[in-house]
Design a protein that fits this description.
Elements lengths: L1 H10 L5 H27 L12 E2 L17 E5 L4 E8 L5 H9 L6 H6 L2 E9 L2 E8 L9 E8 L4 E9 L5 H14 L1 E2 L23 H12 L4 E6 L2 H8 L5 E7 L6 H9 L3 E7 L14 H6 L4 H14 L3 E5 L19 H17 L5 E5 L26 E5 L8 H4 L6 H16 L4 E6 L8 H11 L6 E8 L1 E3 L7 E4 L6 H10 L11
Helix pairs in contact: 14-15
Amino acid sequence: MAKKENNQRENKPKMSWKKKLLILVCAGALLVVGVLGFIFVFVYDGFGLESWALGWSGALPEDMSLWGASSDGYYAEGRNDYLYARVTRERSTYIDVDEYIAGYHDLYIRNSDWLRQNDVTVLRDETRGRVSVYSIQVGAMPDWNDDVYTYVILRTNTRYFVRALFKYRSDRNAEEAVKVIDEFADTVKMTVSFPEKREGYDDISPEISYSWSDETLETYERLANTQRAYFGAFSADLGELEDKLGRQLPMAMTYFHIEEPLPLEKLQSWYEEGKLTELTLQLTATNNLELANAPSPLIEVISGQYDGKLREIAEDLKAFGHPVLFRLNNEMNSDWTSYSGVVNLADPELFSQAWRYIYEFFAENGVDNTIWIFNPNGLDFPAASWNSYLSYYPGNRYVHMLGVTGYNTGTYYADVTKEKWQSFKEIYDGIEKKYGKHFGEFPWIITEFASSSIGGDKAGWIEDMFEELPSYGNIKAAVWFDYADFDPAKPGTVARPYWIAETEETLEAFKKGIEGMPERFYGD
């Protein structure tokens, strides 16, 4: 019987290659028709523009001209004459989605202290089945900016949800804006996502349009073209560190906050030693503490409330007269700074507006010696599509270098945060992959980095770092954070010791790594 069946199979006519090709073509055609039908259903279903590829659908006006990119998060945004919309597909990192939304997305926009500090009035707070609508009016917002924020969230039976932010002026077409928002809330739904590269962030590159001094332009070109990264440090006592190293470093880094004076004497002293300064300005009046109990520094900046202070900083920068690597509001895509998106209405556009405001303010006041560094945190906190580091990018005119930050934090908090020991290569391979596709034309600086000693061989880490660093061609400078993180639950306890001279072994590894490197950036 088996033999007969085999003979029947052997005698069965074989399909010709032409028929096979025809079947493949037909199958392909059916697939195309199906996809086109899917597009038709979700893009033109009678309500207006919708996004089918990014994992959601919902009615929006056809004149909103949605655009977006799914390579770094599912989002789409658009604006018409009276309304701005940004819609994202999100995934909770908690099992409890409501806890995640309350603990990240809504943490400050529903906080009574933050609302009071920023003159915020709740306009409506309602739930429609799985859809919540929360609308507030920000009294502190300047007259030219949107002052009504409405957040629409669609929950599902999974960890995924859809989040939409709408903004408009309360004194311009407000009724029409509310109608559009309500229509979206009634029609929004989760869909199957089809990640694809879309327009949005394909044209990122530095534009040297700033009226720099000759020395500043020469400094930038030297950094951009160097084949070996310059080294520097942030240290509580840089002179003592250099004594231990037995040599000077060509770069140094310092911080100051918006309420503090620019450290002019320090900048001048370092310049006389031949150092290039990385100058970090943070818009915080509370040292990035008490985040809920303070006005939004971003709103204060764009409202002109800090113009007097910014004018003082501009005059001091002009008085110094030499180049600085100006790092404004680093790690904005986090949840631990006064100027972060989470703290400021969960709206990255406010950050970009404040950045451009300060840039133009300096330009109008004759500052010609600042090289601007855009420096997001290596990871987004929260890891949300709306909080992608790209959402904070202020535009090509306003950025000259990319700042990257990646620490080997060690394992002190392993039981709490599951942090693990990471090599320099593991950290910066990930950073290169993440940023390289968008910022490959920029010179990069590691604005701060270090390795803890808890959980591994710190001296070996330093040796490997110096060996691996030359393989990252975009990195033109690196600044070591020569200090420590302390455990707030145990005052005085060091959680992450980052000191270069922590041990003789770590000091010798660093001394060996910088052998032959220039000791000065300026002068012989």
